[in-house]
């Protein structure tokens, strides 16, 4: 274990909220601008202290006096497709599934942070995009698990981080990046396993830990997409989950690609469209080729120069999952002779394929339109619990319009059913219009804001009302 100083720092957090039922923390000045109605709240400061404390240990070395963690093991559903890439349906018309081993990690607050009654809410926190299979919470890989551990320590939550499908125990498969059904099923299947730990983990049993009956979803980027996909699954197929002992209390979905067929496509076909890291679009296409088989032909989709097999490989090898996304992006950028953030979408794709599958007027009848619409989350259903959308107006990788338009469309669905959208949907900008954080930079603000929203009882006073002018 590292020196004792981090433990002493952790003990100082005893002045902060000890549980999700505690009163709001006292205000501590923080840098401006922050989050509209959240301006001046202390969570960013003290949550960051918790992150800094936990970063000083390697994951397996964190003592239970700071945060307890438990390995999560369960069987998750993997949707089944036939050789044509079409869903395999059962006699009821539901898609069939294979059960595959899946994994994750759950973090819990130490006993000294809680009163004698230690019933905790469960926050299920799917992590954001990663191509490398080792960057998973179950193995303390990557960095994002530290935010989950900090939320357990600071707020008194039980925070479950499932490894995304195709990673961890399911590493034999390719990760189904932004495939809504795959991500929703695997995340929802983690919830019963996480709840079972309250009665099977010896440390939790000895400490008198239990579940307080509340279950939340929270995520950033692809984790936000996953969380909203899971919320939609519960809202549109309630009969499939009627036998569960839990229901969804709320969801915090921050900076996700919810609107693929409309907003994302229009952003992609702009002449100057690009990502800060150029592996995202190749990752999506490669993942969908694994899901849908012949419905996504990578040799037609990618630019010929990237398909060439040279001494350093080619894009099919770079995207096979053995490299992490940043490394794969470096190979792509070197092949194109540009820095990663200067690689345009049009540099990545075959112009003929792009014209046939993504650009107007051919898009109206293209195969990609059907796939994008199958994985849209921004319309066609009504939320059944409060949802927070948090997004930076300065996000150049995933437009702020993704969250705003999604709230507008879902708000319209709720209004048609006679419900008040303001009771279910809140859109909160991260920073002011014309200012804010990049997609990656906003993580350090958005995640504390999501946990804080849950801690405060999901206040729905709007940062931007659904339906407000864009």
From TrEMBL:
Asked if the Swiss-Prot or TrEMBL record annotates the protein with the keyword Oxidoreductase, the reply is no
- Keywords from the named record: Signal
GO biological process: one example: lipid catabolic process
The source's domain of life comes to Bacteria
Which GO molecular function annotations are given, in alphabetical order?
Answer: triacylglycerol lipase activity
The record, for Gene3D superfamilies, names: 1.10.260.160, alpha/beta hydrolase (3.40.50.1820)
Q: Which residues form the signal peptide?
A: 1-22
Under InterPro entries, the record lists:
AB_hydrolase_fold, Lipase_secreted
Protein's name in the database: Secretory lipase
């Amino acid at each position: 274990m590292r020196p004792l100083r981090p433990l002493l720092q952790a003990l100082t957090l005893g002045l902060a909220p000890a549980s999700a039922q505690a009163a709001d923390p006292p205000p501590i000045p923080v840098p401006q601008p922050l989050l509209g109605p959240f301006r001046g709240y202390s969570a960013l400061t003290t949550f960051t202290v918790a992150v800094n404390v936990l970063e000083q240990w390697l994951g397996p070395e964190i003592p239970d006096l700071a945060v307890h963690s438990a390995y999560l093991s369960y069987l998750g559903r993997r949707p089944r497709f036939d050789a044509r890439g079409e869903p395999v349906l059962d006699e009821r018309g539901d898609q069939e599934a294979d059960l595959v081993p899946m994994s994750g990690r759950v973090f819990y607050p130490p006993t000294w942070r809680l009163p004698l009654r230690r019933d905790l809410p469960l926050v299920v926190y799917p992590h954001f995009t990663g191509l490398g299979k080792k960057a998973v919470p179950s193995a303390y890989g990557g960095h994002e698990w530290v935010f989950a551990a900090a939320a357990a320590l600071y707020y008194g939550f039980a925070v479950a981080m499932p490894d995304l499908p195709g990673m961890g125990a399911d590493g034999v498969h390719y990760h189904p990046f932004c495939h809504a059904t795959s991500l929703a099923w695997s995340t929802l299947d983690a919830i019963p396993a996480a709840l079972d730990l309250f009665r099977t983990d010896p440390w939790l049993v000895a400490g008198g830990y239990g579940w307080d009956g509340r279950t939340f979803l929270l995520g950033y980027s692809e984790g936000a997409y996953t969380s909203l996909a899971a919320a939609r699954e519960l809202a549109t197929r309630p009969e499939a989950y009627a036998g569960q002992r839990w229901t969804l209390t709320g969801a915090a979905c921050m900076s996700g690609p919810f609107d693929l067929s409309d907003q994302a496509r229009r952003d992609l076909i702009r002449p100057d469209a690009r990502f800060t890291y150029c592996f995202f679009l190749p990752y999506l296409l490669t993942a969908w080729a694994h899901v849908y088989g012949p419905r996504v032909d990578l040799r037609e989709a990618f630019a010929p120069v990237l398909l060439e097999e040279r001494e350093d490989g080619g894009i099919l090898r770079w995207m096979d999952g053995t490299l992490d996304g940043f490394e794969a992006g470096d190979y792509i950028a070197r092949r194109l002779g540009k820095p990663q953030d200067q690689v345009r979408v049009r540099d990545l794709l075959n112009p003929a394929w792009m014209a046939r599958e993504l650009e107007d007027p051919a898009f109206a009848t293209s195969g990609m339109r059907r796939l994008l619409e199958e994985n849209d989350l921004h319309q066609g259903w009504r939320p059944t619990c409060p949802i927070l959308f948090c997004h930076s107006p300065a996000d150049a990788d995933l437009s702020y319009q993704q969250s705003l338009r999604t709230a507008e469309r879902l708000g319209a669905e709720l209004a048609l059913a006679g419900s008040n959208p303001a009771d279910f949907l809140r859109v909160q900008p991260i920073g002011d219009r014309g200012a804010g954080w990049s997609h990656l930079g906003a993580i350090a603000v958005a995640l504390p804001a999501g946990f804080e929203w849950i801690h405060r009882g999901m206040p729905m006073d709007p940062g931007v009302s659904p339906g407000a002018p864009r």
